[in-house]
From TrEMBL:
Gene3D superfamilies: Phosphoenolpyruvate-binding domains. Transmembrane segments: none annotated. It is an enzyme of class 4 (lyase). One of its GO terms (molecular function) is aldehyde-lyase activity. Belongs to the HpcH/HpaI aldolase family. This is 4-hydroxy-2-oxo-heptane-1,7-dioate aldolase. One of its GO terms (cellular component) is cytoplasm. Its EC number is 4.1.2.52. Keywords: Lyase, Metal-binding. The gene is hpcH_2.
Length: 263
């Protein structure tokens, strides 16, 4: 028992993270077989709920991916429940201050390092004898989302908060905070400079630098820049993109065949 994603990150490798917005165990099962190192169930902006989260975790269990969750907010009740369900890491939105970060870490960790309540109903193998409680604090990834100007300004204090494993950049809300429309793969110098600074500050502390992206090409750029935990789109977005591509390609082939027949 342990967090294979954390082991890989600690070893210096980058990790690709899948993202589940669709409340379906089948969608989770398919994504879990695609080569991601971890898969995150999104309880904030996806259409998942707690029951669908558990179904997704059950479907992913037979495959070599680490289950993670993005919770809706920095609230200890839901944080404890997703960890009890078997999440090996929690991504939490809108962590803007060291106080926010401390409250988040406390909700993720058992005493004496935090205030998480005991009751890991799935995480501890349905109540069977387990060492889960003895390793959870060391193994759980605690990843605050950095998605406002305030969070960027407070990044040193957030990263130095005990229990915090690193950061996860949310480009959409960060754009709102900077007076721009939300989008994932930002090219503006202002964003790239922020990313470089965040990477430098996480790297010198040996912590995780994560970001959400929209495409493979941009993800590769972010890895080269220094991010080591990268999400690419989500299951619904990837499905829609593949569908649009195959429809476009079919129309193009039909046009090509029609032109050939006229010649």
């Amino acid at each position: 028992m342990g967090n294979e994603l954390k082991e890989r990150l600690d070893g210096g490798d980058y990790c690709l993270n899948g993202w589940l917005a669709i409340p379906s165990g089948f969608s989770a099962e398919v994504m879990a077989q695609c080569g991601w190192q971890s898969v995150t169930v999104d309880l904030q902006h996806g259409v998942q709920d707690y029951h669908s989260l558990v179904s997704c975790f059950q479907s992913m269990g037979a495959h070599p991916v680490t289950p993670l969750v993005r919770v809706p907010w920095n609230e200890p009740g839901i944080i404890g429940k997703v960890l009890d369900a078997g999440a090996w890491g929690v991504i939490c939105p809108m962590i803007n201050t060291p106080e926010d970060a401390a409250a988040f870490a406390s909700a993720c960790l058992y005493p004496p390092h935090g205030k998480r309540s005991n009751g890991p109903i799935r995480a501890a193998a349905y109540g069977e004898a387990s060492a889960y409680q003895t390793i959870a604090n060391a193994e759980i990834l605690v990843l605050p989302m950095i998605e406002t100007r305030q969070a960027v300004e407070n990044i040193d204090a957030i990263l130095d908060t005990p229990g915090i494993s690193g950061i996860y950049v949310g480009p959409g809300d960060l754009a709102f905070s900077l007076g721009k429309l939300p989008a994932l793969d930002r090219e503006e110098d202002e964003f790239l400079a922020i990313y470089e600074s965040l990477i430098q500050k996480t790297r010198k502390r040996g912590k995780v630098a994560g970001i959400h992206t929209g495409t493979a090409a941009y993800s590769a750029r972010m890895i080269k820049m220094g991010f080591n935990f990268i999400s690419i789109a989500n299951d619904s977005g990837l499905m829609a993109r593949a569908a649009r591509d195959v429809i476009r390609e079919t129309h193009e082939v039909v046009k090509s065949l029609s032109s050939s027949n006229k010649e």
